[in-house]
Amino acid sequence: METIGVLLLNLGGPDSLDAVRPFLYNLFSDRLIIKLGPPFMQRPIAALIAATRAEKSRSMYAQIGGASPLSRITIDQAKALSNALSQPQFAVFTGMRYWHPYIEDAVKTAYDSGIREFIALSLYPHYSLATTGSSFGELERVLSTKYPARCRYIRSWPDNPLYIAALTELINEGIAEFDGRYPHIIFSAHALPEYFITQGDPYVTEINKTIDALRPALKGREIHQSYQSRSGPVKWLEPSTEVTIEMLAGDGIKDILVVPISFVSDHIETLYEIDIFYRDFALKRGIILKRVKSLNTHPVFIQALKTLINEVLE
Ligand SMILES: C=CC1=C(C)c2cc3[nH]c(cc4nc(cc5[nH]c(cc1n2)c(C)c5CCC(=O)O)C(CCC(=O)O)=C4C)c(C)c3C=C
Ligand SMILES: [Fe+2]
Ligand SMILES: [Fe+2]
C-alpha cells in the first residue's frame, strides 16, 4: 500500500529573537493576510512594516522565553498523530506558512521519501482566507510547480465532536480553578479585518458553530465573545477582548475565564497576550483572569485529528 502523507499546516512562529523580523516580513508579504498597495509595492512595504514592528514583537517574544513554541508544539502534535494513525499507511509532516519548517520543506521531505498522495489538514479549526486559505494556496503552488501529487484538503472542523469534547474538558478544568466561584466566560478569537466577512469569509460563522456546540455543556453560564490581537489601521471585528474585559469590570464582575477559541496551540497570543497582557489588564480592574489551557497534544484532540483523516478517506 502506498503511504499517504498527512500535512499538518499552521502559521509558524519565530524560533529566536533574530527570526522575529524576517518572520514578520514573510507574514506581511502575503497579500491574502494583508494587501499593502499595488502588488509590486507589497514586499517593500512589508519590509518597512516588519522593520517598524520588530522591536515591539521582539519584546513580546522575549517575555515568553525568546521564541514562539508553535513549530515545536506542531511537531509534537504530528508525532502524537503519527502514533495514533495506523502504520505504514500514513506519515505525518509539519508545514508552516511563515517560518521553518515551511510548507515547501514538508512537501519536499515527503516527496523525497516517495510519497505521491497527500492529505492537507489545516490546524485552524475555523476557515478564513487569511489563514487556511493562504496555507492551501501555498501548498497548491508547491504541488503544481515542483512536486506533482494528489492532495485532499481538510478545510475546517468547527464542530468535530472530539474537538468539542476535548475543549469541553479543558473548559471544565478552567472553571474548577475558580474554587466554586462563577467566572464569566470569554471566547476570545483572533481578530480579522471586517472586510473579510463582508466579502464572504466564513470565519465568524464557523466560530459561532464551535461556541454553539459547546453551549449545552456550559449550561446557563455567562458567555461572551470577543476578538484579540488586532495589528493595523483597518476596521477589525468587534468587540475587542480588551473592551469586553473593561465592560465586565464596569458590571462589577470579579472572575473571568478566557477560552482562546481560534487556536489549538500555545504561542504569543496565549502566552503573552492573554497570560501576561490581559491578565494584568484585568487585575488592574480588580478581576482575576485565568485562561483555558491550549489543546496542544491533548489525547482527545489528537483523536479528533485522526477522525478528520479517516473521514476524508471514506
Ligand atoms: C485564526 C488565526 C489567525 C488569524 C485570523 C490571523 C490574522 C491576522 N494576523 C495578522 C498579523 C499577525 N499575526 C501574528 C501572529 C499570529 N497570528 C496567528 C493566527 C491568526 N492570525 C497566530 C497563531 C500567531 C502566532 C505566531 C506565533 O507566535 O507563533 C503576528 C506576529 C506577532 C505580532 O507581532 O503581533 C502578526 C503581525 C494579521 C494582519 C491578520 C489579518 C488577517
Ligand atoms: Fe495573526
Ligand atoms: Fe496576531
UniProtKB/TrEMBL annotation:
It comes from the Bacteria. Pathway: Porphyrin-containing compound metabolism; protoheme biosynthesis; protoheme from protoporphyrin-IX: step 1/1. It is found in: Cytoplasm. The keyword Nucleotide-binding does not apply. Fe(2+) binds at H190, E269. PANTHER family: FERROCHELATASE, FERROCHELATASE, MITOCHONDRIAL. It catalyses: Fe-coproporphyrin III + 2 H(+) = coproporphyrin III + Fe(2+); heme b + 2 H(+) = protoporphyrin IX + Fe(2+). Its EC number is 4.98.1.1. CDD domains: Ferrochelatase_C, Ferrochelatase_N. It is an enzyme of class 4 (lyase). Catalyzes the ferrous insertion into protoporphyrin IX. This is Ferrochelatase. Belongs to the ferrochelatase family. GO terms for molecular function: lyase activity.
